[in-house]
Amino acid sequence: MTSRNPSLSVVVPIFNEESVLPLLARRLRPVLDGLGEPYEVVAVDDGSTDASPVVLAGLRRGWPQLRVVRLRRNSGHQAALTAGLFRARGGYVASIDADLQDPPEVLVEMLTLARERALDIVYGVRSDRSTDSTFKRSTAGLYYRLVRRLVGNTVPAQAGDFRLLSRATVEALRELPERRPVLRLVVPWLGFPSAEVPYVREQRAAGSTKYSLSRMVRLATDSITSFSAAPLRVATGLGVGGMLLCALMVVFAFVAYLRDSTVAGWASLYVAILFLGAVQLLCLGLLGEYVGRIYAAVQGRPSYFVSSDTDDLFVSSDAADLVAVAAPAPESVDGLTDRSAGGAPLDGSVEGGPTDGSVDGAPVEEPVGAGSGAPVARTGGGAASVARSGAASARRGRSGTRTAG
After folding, report:
1. For labeling, which of 31, 198, 281, 341 is most exposed (least CB within 10 Å)?
2. How do strand 366-368 and strand 304-309 relate by DSSP bridges?
3. Distance CA 129, CA 286 (A)
4. Who's near 77: CB < 8 A, 6+ residues apart?
């Protein structure tokens, strides 16, 4: 069972990583155990379709600090990362991918730097990406140059989602109204005190990358449209340029007409129509991106749904123990429970529930989105309500027994 107040939480988004999870545990656990402080590892299973849930369950049996949060469906890397951040309880919250390209050993350096300099954010910055393919390095470099030009130099170059956040930073993120935040842009935008720790990016330990070209394009599009109105200004510029070109063509046609040198031809007309049509479609597409984001915000749908959290199961078990203590057995007559007086069964269980002293019902699935509150464990019966009903039944039972006598 994880500590209720860990010093450090490590969030690991996972999607179909069955082959790398044992390697991750072998490298990450010694690093965290060496801290000598309470910690938790929040593994967010983003709707994996392979054996990742089974592997995580096996790892939990020998690693009590491991906590598994499973999402109902595949919601995306950023949504899984957000879910882990908002459910983590540590004073500091770190995030790291499961592929071990970001070395877990750097976490100690990041935590030490944050404490020594009273920092709220420590970024892991890739100083060497030679293990990545040429295509990956070139597209990543283009992405960071474009983002820094549009958003500003507050975004660290070559800094992904390997970072350390203070509790104050996590709570500030929780207050933001965005439901699909791009964290590598939102976190620098907060403006909290920060620093960088360089590291050498390693090769993927096992498995294959889950960031396809389409996912990278989607990330770039979300990054630009969520943080800058520059594309709209580009559309405006294209529209103005198209109008000026059309005006020049009108002047040219008018002069040609006055000189009686007009020649019937379709090429110029064809090119002009194609150019104007392309400009209009591009402007409509850019507007559509922003309208789509507005539409998604108005709908207010959560960006992810939590299916289960292993920590909630422990909370339910603790609540059951509380019920057993808080609800004393009522008085009985002739060795039988006075059911007419509202008494409880003699075996100490809640009437209508299990007889092993546990609270019936599994943790209630709760939809969670960006900006949601801290996770609250709820059980089907409710520990407090069952305790109150048990105590009330005991009072009614004693009253009924005295009246009968």
Report:
1. 281
2. antiparallel
3. 33
4. 13, 15, 46, 161, 210, 211, 215
Closest CA to 194 of 142, 121, 143, 132: 121
> CB-based burial of residue 311 (10 Å sphere; 0-12 exposed, 13-18 middle, 19+ buried)?
buried
Q: How far apart are the C-alpha atoms of 216 and 206, rounded to whole Å?
A: 21
The CATH number of 8-225, from 3.40.50.300, 3.90.550.10, 3.30.70.100, 3.30.1490.270, is 3.90.550.10
**Could you tell me which residues come within 8 angstroms of residue 206 by beta carbon, excluding any fewer than 6 positions away?**
19, 20, 23, 99
- Mention every residue, 6+ apart, whose C-beta is less than 8 A from residue 299: none
pLDDT of 382 over the 80 cut: no
Q: SS3 of 11, please?
A: strand
Choose the most confident range, by mean pLDDT, from 37-46, 152-161, 302-311, 339-348. 37-46
Q: Whole-structure pTM over 0.90, yes or no?
A: no
The pair of three-digit structure tokens given for residue 206, joined into one six-digit string: 């096992």
Domain ranges, ordered by start, for the chain: 8-225, 230-283, 304-404
Q: Return d(Cα 261, Cα 331) in angstroms, integer.
A: 113
> Which residues are bridge partners to 332 per DSSP?
337
Take residue 379 and report the two structure tokens written for it.
């059980």
Residues written for the chain: 405
Residue range 271-280, pLDDT digits in tens: 677 677 777 7
Judge contact between 145 and 41, C-beta under 8 A.
Answer: no
Which amino acid appears at position 268 of this protein?
S
Higher pLDDT, 40 or 159: 40
230-258 vs 267-299: helix crossing angle, rounded to 10: 160
